[in-house]
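Structure tokens please, single chain.
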Amino acid sequence: MTRLLQGINASPGMAIAPILIYRDSQPVIEETTITDADAEIERLQAALRETRAELEKLRDSVKTKLGEEKAEIFEGHLMILEDPDLIDAVMEAIQNESVNAEYAVHTASSSFIEVLKQMDDEYLRERAADVRDVSGKLIGRLSGVTQTDLSQLTEPCIIIANDLAPSDTAKLDMGVVKGFITEIGSRTSHSAIMARSLGIPAIVGVGALSDDIQTGALALLDATNGTVTIEPSEEQHRDFIGKKEQYDQQQAELAKWVNRPSLSSDGHRVELAANIGKLEDVQKALDNGAEAIGLFRTEFLYMGRNSLPTEDEQFASYKYVLEKMNGKPVVIRTLDIGGDKELPYMELPKEANPFLGQRALRLCLERPELFRTQLRALLRASSYGNLKIMFPMIAVLSELRDAKALLEEERTKLLAEGIAVSDTIEIGMMVEIPAAAVSADLFAKEVDFFSIGTNDLIQYTMAADRMNETVSYLYQPCNPSVLRLVRIVVEAARKEGKWVGMCGEMAGDEAAIPLLLGLGLHEFSMSASSILSARAQIGELSYERWSQLAEQALTMATQDEIQDFVRSQS
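Here you go.
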């Protein structure tokens, strides 16, 4: 019987192959009382050594196959395995509660996982899967239960699983595995990141699968629209083959846009940039024709470690990105941490409303020595490329002025020390708070550029937590109120001769791009994989025509009306 599954596009592409149901072998974990705690701890230490050796082997394999950057995922797994808080909790359970090592690892890791799953930040929530992966390996070593080795597959297949750990994904043979589907997960899970790196089609979050879906059934995986057809009819199979050929042809056509300028059909120039979080993202941005880095999320330099990155560590990272971009603009956002994005080693206070609390620039101004270290690293790196520094989460002018004052103090100190600092650094701010958008005319006099952070601007404008599924209907990028705020910012910047970018997800939204072009946005910053399709789309749009149509759209009452209007005019 034909089945249709719907999920989240994790990695684009289309594939046809038989299904392989992958159910990882998990040991039955029972609590038993031990009499010799020292012997049990020795058994734990042996399992830790064996698991460490397994992860190191896997890290080295991934480094050979995908490069050093992708192997960093397993450096993170090794850090989890050596996390003193986790290991101490396991040992205390063995010593104080006289429980077996398997049960101690299970209870301690489960507590860590539950804490991570409750985080508001999606990236941190997804790290729960990493703790589960590592603890599962350790428990497997302790119990003697071996896991299925996906690297040994020999027949073409599409894998269906509840979830795939990063270590599972890294083992996949691209000549055999044509794609995968998981019941849970999101686009930011490590398995999804690995899938995109490997170029393998993947759909996640399809929900619990019925037991009557069997290994061997033919599947049509369309990771361009998030659908999977199992046991298709002959007609569905034939239609899918035609669509796949068309998709492959479209991808070949998009490749032609890599080295082309970003021009509208009537010659209006914009800049298409990439959002990055890690150093390895830079090459992907260049491969996809990025003309700039529109957002470097520096908080990722602070995550997955036990202490703050030093000035020299940060300097090396910023210098790498600037040199790699070879003179192209690089917008580096200062630390956006706090509230929902926790750093355990900083011992940040718990807040009832973290998105409205002491985060980002507010935190940096409260802890100036933390901020000064980053500013020094940025200034030192500035002479190696085209650096633009951007401050996040600004609500009032005093915050901007205080941040600029600290920056100038550190510039003066570095110059006094004989350290070169570029004299062409542009200073900008993110516009993600409605108060800043409404007062953009005041801010425009004191910055060189704006970058609109729509992910937060939308949730603050609509008073709807974008992580809360019950109010997800209010997360509306094309809502008239959001678009009017964008227009206010663009017009304020234009009057002062400043440029405006956008680094939220809306910048790469096919339905929003015509409106943003018409409103006069100068820079569109998005995920690297969206750049070529955005460039091709803009190449078919008339700037003059959409300047008029955008104004017409802003007179409409609802997002649905606006989106229907855009579709009718495209």
